[in-house]
Amino acid sequence: MTELVEKIRKDGSYLGNGILKVDSFLNHRLEPKLTLSFGKHFKAMFDELAVKGVNKIITAETSGIAPALATAICYDVAVIYARKKKPVTMLEHYSAKAPSHTKGGITKLMVSKEFLSKDDKVLIIDDFLATGKTLLALANLVKESGAELLGIGCVIEKSFEHGREKLAKLGIPIASLAIIDSLDKNGISVRKG
Amino acid sequence: MTELVEKIRKDGSYLGNGILKVDSFLNHRLEPKLTLSFGKHFKAMFDELAVKGVNKIITAETSGIAPALATAICYDVAVIYARKKKPVTMLEHYSAKAPSHTKGGITKLMVSKEFLSKDDKVLIIDDFLATGKTLLALANLVKESGAELLGIGCVIEKSFEHGREKLAKLGIPIASLAIIDSLDKNGISVRKG
């Protein structure tokens, strides 16, 4: 996605320790047109990959919600965001464990059983593909439900964290809108996904 | 919003202790068309209330993100979701304290200073108006930034928790898409906002 690559070059910044600051358009402040175009590009990429029959989008709170909703709008299917704390309104649920980005330690991702079943054909959409651990946890959660996982899409992939290799065993298409190959004091090396 | 009132009657359920379960369309699973129509209705209500010049939407993670993004799409302005844990990418920030729904205790809501300033004209959009404490915290945060708060919109108001009275001192329009007047074992009494 050329527009995203340009946006990362223009507004992204490197904070050290492998951390990319893109909170002006991805995980704190959002621009509606750009966010909606994430959905359009995911749909176009999965169409080209011959991914068909998607009837549900799954993501994880918090930063996955906006790109996942944008994608759900394009497919006109429901989106479910996995919760990291069990709300009082959640009854029986599927769960999977993933490392926590914010706190260290382990986060439990939870999806209500009533909203995901073996009849579903699912795309997972998230903001980042880095180590792949959160996405793998979501994939395990989808597997537990019996639903079919058709593909994984992420807005920004950090290829140098090798998450794509970890997800390869799932044997499904993985689509990134932008891929960052290196990130250091010399700059951000980013290309179209 | 008639469609939302019908949706609450059809898919909402009462779990006891004043808790309304609407996670099939508001805070776990989302339907794109319904979510987008939240935005359209907020815009129409604020237009009718002569609220003009909105250039930013503010909400709080997590469940506020979808209705706030839908509203930002209609206004074609940026949306910022206040964070409850400080991300590593957040530098200087405004903050306000609100009671935590999930954990008890107090949650700190944080917005980066770089994304909100005295030149902004803000609408706050959230999923629920109950006691009004979270919305009041967001209003205080906007005030701290020097931005002008033009109005507050929430998808579902529980009028029996009297949040609207608490927000009245702000002297700004408050718009709810659906208002629940009572919630008990006899049913959900809900009307258009």
Can you characterise this structure?
Chain A is α/β, with parallel strands linked by helices and 193 residues long. The first copy, chain A, has a single domain, classed as Rossmann fold, CATH 3.40.50. Helix content of chain A is 29%, strand content 35%. Chain A is built from 5 helices and 11 strands, in the order H-E-E-E-H-E-H-E-E-E-E-H-E-H-E-E. The first copy, chain A, has helices spanning 2-11, 32-48, 65-75, 133-145, 163-167, and strands spanning 13-14, 20-21, 29-30, 56-60, 78-82, 93-99, 106-112, 121-129, 148-158, 174-184, 187-192. Chain A has a 6-stranded mixed beta sheet, with helices on both faces. In chain A, strands 1-2 form a two-stranded antiparallel ribbon. In chain A, strands 6-7 form a two-stranded antiparallel sheet. The first copy, chain A, is globular, with a radius of gyration of 16 Å. The N and C termini of chain A lie close together (7 Å). The model of chain A has no long low-confidence stretch (mean pLDDT 96). Chain A binds chain B through residues 15, 19-24, 27-33, 35-36, 61-62, 65-66, 69, 72-73, 76-81, 83, 85, 87-90, 102-103, 111-112, 114-115, and chain B through 15, 19-24, 27-33, 35-36, 61-62, 65-66, 69, 72-73, 76-81, 83, 85, 87-90, 102-103, 111-112, 114-115.
Reconstruct the topology from this structure.
Two copies of one chain form a homodimer.
Chain A (H helix, E strand, L loop, with lengths): L1 H10 L1 E2 L5 E2 L7 E2 L1 H17 L7 E5 L4 H11 L2 E5 L10 E7 L6 E7 L8 E9 L3 H13 L2 E11 L4 H5 L6 E11 L2 E6 L1
Parallel strand pairs in A: 4-5, 4-8, 8-9, 9-10
Antiparallel strand pairs in A: 1-2, 6-7, 10-11
Helix pairs in contact in A: 2-3
